[in-house]
Amino acid sequence: MNSSDSEEDSYNERSALVQSESPTIPSYNQDHDMSLPEETDTKRRRPVSSGLDEPVPVLVERERVATPDGEEEELTLKYGAKHVIMLFIPVTLCMVVVVATIKSVSFYTEKSGQRLIYTPFEEDPNSVGQRLLNSFLNTIVMISVIVFMTIILVVLYKYRCYKFIQGWLILSSLMLLFWFSFMYLGEVFKTYNVAMDYPTLVMIIWNFGVVGMICIHWKGPLRLQQAYLIVISALMALIFIKYLPEWSAWVILGAISIYDLIAVLCPKGPLRMLVETAQERNEPIFPALIYSSAMVWMVGMADVSNPGSADERQRGGGGARAQEGVESEDDVAQGVSRRYSAEEDLEEDRGIKLGLGDFIFYSVLVGKAAATGGDWNTTLACFVAILIGLCLTLLLLAIFKKALPALPISITFGLVFYFSTDNLVRPFMDSLASHQYYI
Amino acid sequence: MNLERIPNEEKLQLCRRYYLGGFAFLPFLWLVNVMWFFKEAFLKPAYTEQPQLKSYVKKSAMGLLLWVAVLTTWITIFQHFRARWGEVGDYLSFTIPLGTA
Questions:
Q1: What is the rounded end-to-end Cα distance, in angstroms, of chain B?
Q2: Distance, CA of A159 to chain centre
Q3: Which domain of life is it from (chain B) (predicted)?
Q4: If 0-12 CB within 10 Å is exposed, 13-18 middle and 19+ buried, where does residue A328 land?
């Protein structure tokens, strides 16, 4: 399969936990000049603009600052735990879809002769040294392509070529939603030996694709948007699993985590520059290719604002190339009137965002473990490792409150667990089983 | 996006756009429209735009049912008669099951 550039773009997303914007106050009009105040700002109360039908004046408050330190810490932790769960679910879903497909549809594990142009060196199974060398060379090619693309993206963003970036994004999501899902459906039908006719197929793909485009790039129900993002991440991961040569895939995973670390944390790293530029301009950083979870608390008659505002800000504003990021967003809910106690009026909605590239690479790791690892031990071990890594990363995010890469820790754990389980635990379990010795 | 946060006129406009979009052979869009705006149209206390919203949701539901009927009929016919149609059946098929008549 010839991959086009737009496919490349989709996995250009690096994982970065973006600098947590201190509590933003969503105005009812969702104007973009909501500044991102520092944590040390004092508590402000600001009546939401009229135009509401509700008779009750709704107040917007930022809670975090007003409370004493003890409560603030507690809030930070509470934020951490709930958000970990909120991210576990989509990451797990994505991995489940990938593993289920790998295990059932043989297409994605068959090695065709085709390779992506990004991995031009063939892996020769006969010579270990040659194979290793070629996989390193493949990795270098792949990473340089990715770096190049990221730099182009940052340059485009800096010079405000938003239209171009948006067009690029739309093209890549078009390809994912139509072409890859068409391939996927075809393979699933072949596997289950179902007859499918063209008219019905066209209807299915057309509906799936168009509604996907609408939900992701325009407006749609949050859950549906999240579902679509999970599906396209899974599709992308499956493509990677199929078309990356064996050893190159593992080396690439490792190299990408290192690149991610560099790109997000170094002062001159492209991703960091992207994040900072976007924050300077007070624009939503990465529309359309960031997964954002939303959490809503409701009290009484308050209308709770949502990181639906996050979504809206995502969609509006700059068409910046979506990159991986975990952004912690504090959208303060519109509190109820003063009658309630301090704890009750102040509610916070916090959404957290994780870049799609993170989903993709996590799923690639687990998928490859499922494809080549042999049995479920390895797969489960990798799965647990990735979740632990994600947990730790979120913890670090809560502590440092700035952009952090989400790939390195998880991928490192995943790789370690994969190789150790495959080479140590599996033979151990096998020989235990063969000797009928249960522990 | 959260429906709670947007004003009613915008909700109406969104519902209307989804409704109109469904005419482009997109029953799924109608389904999304019905599910998303169901609560707004039927379970919320009345507001000025609600009757129109209700009508859009109802029309989307009807369109959806129509499409479901058409597709079900076609799929049934195809699955049943595909083998008998010979060449035409093969021409229409995207995947042909192996090992069956």
A1: 49
A2: 26
A3: Eukaryota
A4: buried
Euclidean distance between CA atoms A63 and A75, whole angstroms? 10
Model ipTM value: 0.93
| Gap between the Cα atoms of A410 and A395, Å rounded | 13
> DSSP letter at A400?
H
> Best of B5, B11, B50 to disrupt the A interface by mutation (most A CBs within 10 Å)?
B5
d(CA A194, CA B79): 9
Asked whether the beta carbons of residue A303 and residue B47 sit closer than 8 angstroms, the reply is: no
Nearest to A16 by CA among A306, A286, A201: A286
Instruction: Give CA separation, B66 vs A205, B15, B59, in Å.
Output: 19, 19, 11
What residues contact residue A372 under an 8 Å CB cut-off, 6+ apart? A246
- Contact between chains at B79 and A195 (C-beta distance less than 8 A): yes
Q: How far apart are the first and last CA of chain A?
A: 47
Query: A60 touching B, CB under 8 A?
Result: no
Tell me the pLDDT of chain A (439 aa) as tens digits: 333 344 444 444 444 544 344 344 433 333 333 333 333 333 333 333 333 344 444 433 333 444 445 555 555 555 567 778 888 999 999 999 999 999 999 888 888 777 787 888 887 778 888 889 989 999 999 999 999 988 998 898 888 888 888 888 899 889 989 999 999 999 999 999 888 899 999 999 999 999 999 998 888 898 999 999 999 999 999 999 999 888 899 999 999 999 999 988 888 888 888 888 888 888 776 656 778 877 543 333 333 333 333 333 333 222 222 333 333 333 322 322 333 333 333 444 557 888 888 999 999 999 999 998 667 888 999 999 999 999 999 888 888 888 789 999 999 999 999 999 888 887 888 888 888 887 7
Instruction: Give chain B's count of helices (H) and strands (E).
Output: 4, 1
User: CA-to-CA distance for A26 and B44, rounded, in angstroms?
Assistant: 24
- 3-class secondary structure, A194: coil
Pick from A157, A84, A153, A93: nearest CA to A328: A84
CA atoms within 13 A on the CB side of B66: 12
- Contact criterion met (CB below 8 Å) for A342 and A34: no
User: The tokens of B60 are what?
Assistant: 């989307």
8 Å CB contact between A238 and A94: no
- Scan residues 180-199 of A and list those with Cβ closer than 8 Å to B: 186, 189-190, 193-199
Instruction: Determine the Cα–Cα distance for residues A118 and A6; give it in Å rounded to an integer.
Output: 13
Residue B93 pairs in a beta bridge with A197
